[in-house]
Write a sequence for this structure.
């Protein structure tokens, strides 16, 4: 694996950009649904595939969408396999989820797509070190 110099924020931004460039729309009203169909150039509802959380893609794009999600998962696994990246991601998400006030590990770990009972010993240790470092600098 090649060592990356990309910060966690840069990594997340690059993944967001990849996802944002995919032809998808989200609709929570009939008007939004019709606008989304127009955006994708779809005439019939039967051409669409619901992908969850209000998202729709063209059925013909299903494989490309699955491939994108798999690629992003692989990229995340590779990025987070690096101890420094993992530690820095923990620090970022601790701050992002206001851990110093909330003291809620589940929201932080959820943002990292982790659960305490499935984390490795090394991940638990790095997470604990990140909590200590974050709380040392916390002024709440």
């Amino acid at each position: 694996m090649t060592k990356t110099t990309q910060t966690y924020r840069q990594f997340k931004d690059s993944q967001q950009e990849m996802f944002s460039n995919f032809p998808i729309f989200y609709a929570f009203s009939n008007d939004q649904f019709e606008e989304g169909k127009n955006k994708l150039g779809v005439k019939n509802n039967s051409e669409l595939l619901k992908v969850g959380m209000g998202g729709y893609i063209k059925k013909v794009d299903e494989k490309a969408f699955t491939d994108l999600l798999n690629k992003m998962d692989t990229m995340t696994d590779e990025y987070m396999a690096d101890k420094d990246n993992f530690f820095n991601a923990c620090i970022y998400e601790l701050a992002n989820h206001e851990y110093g006030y909330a003291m809620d590990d589940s929201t932080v770990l959820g943002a990292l797509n982790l659960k305490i009972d499935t984390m490795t010993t090394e991940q638990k240790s790095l997470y604990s070190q990140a909590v200590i470092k974050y709380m040392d600098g916390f002024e709440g």
